[in-house]
Design goal:
Layout: H1 3-22, H2 30-39, H3 46-65, H4 70-94, H5 101-119
């Protein structure tokens, strides 16, 4: 296994696991409800956003474990990057900067997964 392949494995697993964990939107966690209200995301969006995060994680894993599906993994990483870019925009628009690091972290992992999927 080359360094790039190992990085792809580790980063993609991290990104997928983080997105499964952050899909707490489905559970309606109190901190998620409070944060989404502050940045102007309607509560009715949360199940859809959670579904997108779970679908992105599934796409990442499928692309990781089957070379024929690598483009699906890259597409999933791209979709997650766009999702978190939107989250960053919502935070900036609402001037809620105290927890900007959270969507920033998820955005960074998605971009890293995309870069590694494309380069491998």
């Amino acid at each position: 296994m080359t360094g790039t392949q190992l990085a792809l494995l580790v980063v993609t697993l991290l990104t997928a696991a983080a997105n499964v964990a952050v899909a707490a939107d489905l559970a309606g966690a109190r901190f998620v409800l409070a944060n989404s209200a502050q940045v102007g995301v309607d509560r009715s969006w949360l199940p859809w956003l959670a579904a997108l995060k779970l679908a992105g994680a599934a796409g990442l894993l499928l692309g990781l474990f089957d070379a024929a599906l690598r483009p699906l993994g890259a597409a999933a990483a791209c979709g997650l990057a766009l999702l978190y870019l939107g989250a960053l925009a919502f935070h900036l628009r609402a001037r809620v900067l105290r927890n900007l690091a959270f969507p920033g972290f998820y955005f960074a992992t998605a971009v890293a997964s995309l870069a590694l999927a494309v380069s491998s």
